[in-house]
Queue: 4 jobs
Job 1
Amino acid sequence: MKSFLNSKLTSLIAFALFILVLYCYSLYYDKQLNTNTKYAIATIYGFGTVGGNGLTCKYEFIYNNHVFYSDEHIDCYQNIKIGNRFYVKFSETNIDYTRLLYTKPVPDSIKNTPKFGWKEPPVADTTKIPIHDCSQ
């Protein structure tokens, strides 16, 4: 009985530490993303899976005449199609930190991103794509 309790306690502590590490990484990621933030236009070029059970949206964007590729874990992709354009938020100092703003589509009137991006998206968020309920 004692070893059973020790085993359960060890598992609980390991799980709590895992959650704490994920939380700390999330805070670190957000801090990096919000350091020297820039925005650009991202174009969706594909979809994939993570570990066979999660969806990713693959996108590319141009900054300083270089093409960067990234992906974003998404809940569902019914409203996102290949070729759609959304704003992407990224850290100018470390371009590995990106976040696709898939509720902020880029209007057709905006054709390209300036060479060094924007400090803020150029158009107020007047149109939003509703997030689809994947369970339906």
Note: The chain has a mean pLDDT of 77.
Job 2
Amino acid sequence: MNGSSAYFASGLVAVLSTRLIKGDKIVRLSNCVDLSSAYKLLQEFGYASFSKLDSPDFEPLLMQEMAQTIAFLNKYTMVTELTNIFVTFYDFLNIKLLVKSKKLDKDLSSSCLTFGSIEVKELFNAIAKQDYSSLPQFAQDLLNEYDKTELAPYEIDLIADKAMYKHFLSLAKKSNNKEMLDYVKVDIDLTNIMSSYRSLNANFTAEFTRQFFIEGGNLLLQDLSFDTLTSLTNSFDVKDYELFGKFNRSVYLPLCKLCLKICQEKTSFAQAETYVDSYKKKFLQPYSSVNNSVMPLIYYYLAKQAEISNVRIILSCIKNKIDKELIKTRLKDIYV
């Protein structure tokens, strides 16, 4: 995409950003008493396909909305290496699902997402025939790694996640975009913190937990002191303590405190997940209005992704008659 096209894309993103469902719109949608009234409101907000929906099965239309968002990202990108970080994410999800389905001898291809760079049918056939030659190199490498030994389901996830972030780092470095390289490193750090505390919450051993650590971020494996972390969770005083390793001197201190509190109180990690989304939003926000750059497009994509997630949460809560105040605690910040 040339310079003039890049400016056009940035201008288009600026217009579309004003139409995102946030603020008062989110409040109005959350206050709907039933799905019918929510569908009508979504139609008003630009989700035209909801005008014909008369059933509680709204997921296909949300998937359609996500597919259109990915198509928009691919159409207007000027740096495919960077936007592919978000597109190939779905390839890794599909690979994990199809490899597990092969182990279970069940066809789960209908559950795959169609947003990735690899056609689901092509991926399914390659895995079924164990011939990966037609697939992109990152998929070949991952599937060849799987074929080396018999794996437990959690190991399939573990190997894929490490391969995914290695691929993301490679794409970011290839693009020579420092902002996105830093973003991927931050994403790895946040993932490592969350997985460490989840493991702790599940009473996994330090040895078992260490294998989940993903290399390439700003934090190192030796920064983790699992003995200190374990002793902290045995105390119910969260006002005065020292977090494990270098985390207590990092910008991730608030997340560590939140995760520790969750472990102590044995509550859901949903609030921590919301914090992580918000942190990544704030990290990218300074670059969201840089013209002649792919960053506004990426920022809009993440905003639209958060919007669709919020719509799904709200509709699910309305469908299952969950308290409206609880709905608000589960919603993600819209980026723009």
Note: The two ends are 24 Å apart (CA to CA).
Job 3
Amino acid sequence: MWVKGLRNMSFSNELIGLAKKTVLVNAVVISVAIVLDLGWGTDQFGEMGMVTLLSVALLLTCSGLAYRVFKVRFTEGRSWHVSATIWAIIALGCVFLAADELLRLHENFDEWIHLHFRIEETALSDRLDDLLIAIYMVGALAIMGFYKNELLLFFRLWPSLAAGFACATLMVVLDALTNREDILPLVFDRQTARITHLILCGTEDILKIIAETIFVLMFYRAWEISLDLAKNNDSSGPASPGLS
């Protein structure tokens, strides 16, 4: 699905170059992480590992690109400049997600809930951090719905957006499934469950990197589209629409 989303994007030479470099860096980091994990027993897929740092870098790149779009779209005297606020919100949101990756904000929130309300940790309550990630995603969709008129101008990117969200949704499902080793043993024997758990944990991180890579390329293309829209606006007058 994510491949289909990328194919629906109109690739400029610059975007193709960015895609090649990003995929290459991702492949190298993930390959080295796997080698270190299997050969030396260092968990590079865990918190503050190489894959986490790669994720942070991709999120900050998304933030920078979204801010570029915001600077182009948010221009005084144009009727749609208020709608362009969505790009600033996206930029700030990506910074927050990067901080969440580094500081384990949603995991710490889970722990704080248990300590503050003196809740005994159970298989269900231990997955509060996964619920919080799902809330992030629902909130993002709600904000995009509020600014839908602005996003209509970037309709060519919608398949990529859907692909990125699909990967992120599957990532959240796998995160909840592998949060504790309590579900897979109900389906498999202990050894098979353990191996499956490790595979799914790695798959979860790879899906996260795939989703973030899609968003990096999508936001770069959004920046190119915003420049085209600005040129068209300069030659034909004020653009629309505004907020719905």
Note: The radius of gyration is 20 Å.
Job 4
Amino acid sequence: MPTPNDPFKGFCAIRVSSKRNVTLPSGWKSGLSGPLFICRGQEHGLPFIQVIPPALLHGRPNEIEGPNWTAREKKIHAEELVSENYRPIRLGTRSRLTLPRKWCAEADISFPGEVVIAGRGASFEFWRPENFALLIQRELSETDEESTFPGPLASNTSGLTTIPYQDS
């Protein structure tokens, strides 16, 4: 269930229009106030498109390491990275946004078509459905390797499908 600190939870398949427009789940509206940034991402070698709030973006200068860099130099480098890799986005009145054409191609997202939107707490991601299924399988297999307790998901990774987002 979404909370004020983590407004984006769950995942579901949604339509992408021929103009690359997507409508976000209605249960996520509380987390959509204020500006958002869109960027490219990759996990387990699989590309996706991510949307993050400014609070996460502004925390990233702390991750930048450099030889004897001052805080000011880190901030300048972070701003350069942001301008190259992040774009501010606006949401339409109906919680719609447009995915960048080039990034759709890089993430192998078709339009018109379908995309999986995955809430990650304070951010969310757009995935090609087949890549998202692979991601889940890889994450489950990592969990299986790390776990000594065979949970109910350990033996049931075949036939993996997306779970629709449920408003509460």
Note: The beta strands are 8-16, 21-23, 36-43, 46-52, 86-89, 96-98, 113-121, 124-127.
